[in-house]
Amino acid sequence: MDKFLIEGGRRLSGSISISGAKNACLPILAATLLSDDKSIIRNVPNLRDMSTMLKILKNFGARVQQDADKITIEPKGYKKYIAPYDLVSTMRASVCVLGPLLAKQKRAEVSFPGGCVIGPRPIDLHLKGLRALGVDIKIEKGYIIADGRKMRGANVYLGGHFGSSVLATANTMMAATLIKGVTVIENAACEPEVTDLATFLIKMGAKIKGLGTHQIIIEGVKRLHGAEHSVIADRIEAGTYIIAAAVTKGDITLRNAKLENLVAVADKLAEAGLDIRKVPNGIRARYVRKLKPMDITTLPYPGFPTDLQAQFMSLMTVTEGISVITEKIYPERFIHISELGRMGANIQLEGASAIITGVKSLSGAPVMASDLRASAALVLAGLVAKDVTEVHRIYHLDRGYEDIEEKLTQLGARVWREKER
Ligand code: EPZ
Fold first, then answer.
1. Does the beta carbon of 166 lie inside 6 Å of ligand 1?
2. Mean pLDDT in runs of 10 for the chain (421 residues)?
3. Ligand 1 atom 10, closest CA
4. 333 lines ligand 1 (CB under 6 A)
5. What is the CATH number of domain 25-230?
6. 253, 222, 221, 220: which is closest to 238 by C-alpha?
7. CA-CA distance, 158 to 67, in Å (whole number)?
8. CATH, domain range 2-16+233-419
9. Does the active-site annotation cover 116?
10. Where along the chain do the CATH 3.65.10.10 domains lie?
11. In the chain, N or C: fewer CB atoms in 10 Å?
């Protein structure tokens, strides 16, 4: 295993390119299974999660060719429909192969995805959506055994206790593309990644309306053809580097990033005092004055994204005053609090809210990465902490941040990787 070392106290400035969105890529790669034809997906980030998804597609019998950020997938003739435990257990998002397999093969056996450190990751809304379409589903020996031979379009409400569900929307939408009848998904997720998936499906010949809204309407068609698509920029990666500019009092330009996909985050950071603006082909984030403490609540899109909650918390730990962060999507997503505390942060957890009292400075310390976004939060804290911070189990970070040390170094950070002894 590797660890990441960060020498804090350096101001970040300059410009970097934002990579393709991990959370758009994963369902889009799965969606290529909806056709026998070849599809080409571009702007695919070089991340562990991508290789896991490609392994799953190859496991079904699809031919996969990777040429830098361009992936060519030829599913023709793939017959298998079992997504095994050893692959699904390494990446719970693989559950999004359910929809395409059912639409194309009318069968699917997918290992039941586990939870993770940010909380139990139920899939009841995925199963509700597919059952509404007439899929017969049994759970046996840790597998979802699904029979889609009687699927028909239907209306289904996919709002759960925590609001809409990104991948349940993706699964239901993909399943509905190739079945007879019209499907209406109410309280659909409208994250940009869902819209990007729908855009790709439409390029394949799917009939979908309501992109970017909480009501998505799919009219089934007989077949879909292959398509070419370039994945949207990763708004969570962009938001992470915007916060890096804020926390190091820097000035960073993010090429390819779209401010319109980060409105809630930009609104909060601008209110705090950060100068954040759209520039040709990107976003510029510049520290211009002392920041004010901000309260945030994470909500489904277009609310403040839960995937930037930990990173925002790192910023608030060194922002004078009191700020409150309420996590409404994954109420247990606070594992980073204890590690930030090791660096001198002053955070009290009250139920699903964290109360942060800004401190003058953090001190570098050995800390443990636990999930992708908590790891990013620890790196951000390390950038501003005194001395050196060691972030252990950095493989979590490699799941979602392409070339992070190169990008941080390009911006003037002193970061390096070492083997764990
Ligand atoms: C996607 O996960 C993202 N992952 C997550 O990003 C992100 O945090 C999440 O959406 C919310 O935006 C990918 O796209 C690969 P949900 P997903 O279904 O679709 C509950 C990252 O760091 N829920 O939108 O699995 C669920 O427990 C990852 O990149 C049900 O109750 O999330 C949560 O509280 C982490 N039943 C809420 O809904 C269900 O059937 C939102 O989850 C499904 C979800």
1. yes
2. 94 98 98 98 96 95 97 93 91 95 97 83 96 97 96 98 98 98 98 98 98 98 98 98 98 98 98 98 98 98 98 98 97 96 98 96 95 96 98 92 97 95 77
3. 166
4. no
5. 3.65.10.10
6. 253
7. 37
8. 3.65.10.10
9. yes
10. 2-16+233-419, 25-230
11. C
